[in-house]
Amino acid sequence: MSAPVAASIYSKDNPFPAKLTENRLLNKPGSAKETRHFIVSLAGGDLSYKAGDSLGVFPTNRAVEVAEIIERLGATGEELVSPAMLKLPAPITLREALSHRLALGGPTAKIVNSMLAKTTDAGEKARLAELVKPESKEALTAFLDEREYIDLLTEFPHAKLTPQEFVDHQRKLMPRLYSIASSAKLHPQEIHLTVAVVRYTTNHRERHGVCSTFLADRMRVGETPAPVFVSNSHFGPPEDTTKDAIMVGPGTGIAPFRAFVQDRVATGATGRNWVFFGDQKSSTDYLYQEEWENYLAKGQVARLDLAWSRDQGAKIYVQDKMRANAAELWSWIKNGGYFFVCGDAKRMAKDVDQALHDIISQQGEMPIEQAQDYVKQMKKDKRYQRDVY
């Protein structure tokens, strides 16, 4: 059993003010992606972590977006508000609420109804009334999906909400959890993160992932502290260091497996490591290339299978690499190997799960129902673990 981690005085309710010591772009020029490596210093605190844990980060909203909302509300930002969902002991300024406490995205039907009640413009009233009709549910969902609160204030300027009325429609700004990409055995005083920075356009407006751009753009290396906490996870490398570990982590899903391999090398684990990694292009998106090739050269990673979706005509994904190595994969699993997956829950994790079932059924020469029972038992034994989002 691994030693219990001592309780920290810092938690989600009392986050540690950590500083960034590194912010480095992992993709090479020409990549369609922006994936960054961040190092968060734990110096001056008592935070500890284990491989498989996540770091919770409380972001701050972009000042330019906050200023635009305040202007659209016809406010100064100094108005006192008490957003109901925050249960605050005393009111705070509108600027503080919008900057640090409330989400600026994700508007709901509730604000559309409020604006309908408040607008003094016939055209706005007609448009809003159309959206809230019972038969317009799908249209309303599509409309809101494309918009943040600032869009509604811009498109319906005659719907005058007071600062208090406005904040009562918003959700709480939640911390974001990122899989930790380092082992405390190697880096006890810092936490590494592998983060895809989110930037996109909807409704003719540029959007910015709240926390990913907070880390990438608004935190100054060595200066601005960010409130963080460690979120303990049941996800982690095999406690029995003689066991083999198969790790499937395309894109930023590679983060915890970088931690796993560091951890297993540091403890002198004799179980073999097999890493599946994939992304768009080998020339621009091979995250931590030197590290993986170094592990491979030293035999600390026994197998490294890479899947590049854009390097050839037909897209190749990690599940395709699994199927191509079905016999050996089954051999590792049959002999007690552990199987780990991290990354996109919607598509990748489902496809990998299907491939795992198919491989066990085919290679183990068992009906699919028996393969399903085999996988269920793997989950019970913690030999099949997923960290998907």
Features:
389 residues, alpha/beta, Elongation Factor Tu (Ef-tu), domain 3, NADPH-cytochrome p450 Reductase, Chain A, domain 3, Rossmann fold, 3 domains, six-stranded antiparallel sheet, five-stranded parallel sheet, 15 strands
Structure, explained:
The chain is an alpha/beta fold and 389 residues long. The chain has helices spanning 63-72, 94-101, 109-118, 122-131, 137-145, 149-155, 163-167, 210-218, 255-266, 289-297, 318-324, 326-334, 348-363, 368-380, and strands at 16-25, 35-41, 54-57, 80-81, 92-93, 176-179, 190-196, 199-202, 205-208, 226-231, 245-248, 273-279, 303-308, 338-343, 384-388. The chain has three domains: 16-59 and 176-231, Translation factors (Elongation Factor Tu (Ef-tu), domain 3), CATH 2.40.30.10; 63-167, NADPH-cytochrome p450 Reductase, Chain A, domain 3 (Up-down Bundle), CATH 1.20.990.10; 245-388, 3-Layer(aba) Sandwich (Rossmann fold), CATH 3.40.50. The chain is built from 14 helices and 15 strands. The strands form four sheets. It has a six-stranded antiparallel sheet with strand order 6-3-10-1-2-7, with helices on one face. The chain has a five-stranded parallel sheet with strand order 13-12-11-14-15, sandwiched between helices. The chain starts with 15 loop residues before the first strand and ends with a strand. The relative contact order is 0.14.
Distance between the termini: 28 Å
Q: What structural class do the secondary elements suggest?
A: alpha/beta
As for the CATH topology of the largest domain, it is: Rossmann fold
* Assembly type: single chain
Percentage of helical residues? Answer: 25-40%
CATH homologous superfamily assignment of the largest domain:
Nucleotide-binding domain of ferredoxin-NADP reductase (FNR) module
The CATH architecture name of the largest domain reads 3-Layer(aba) Sandwich
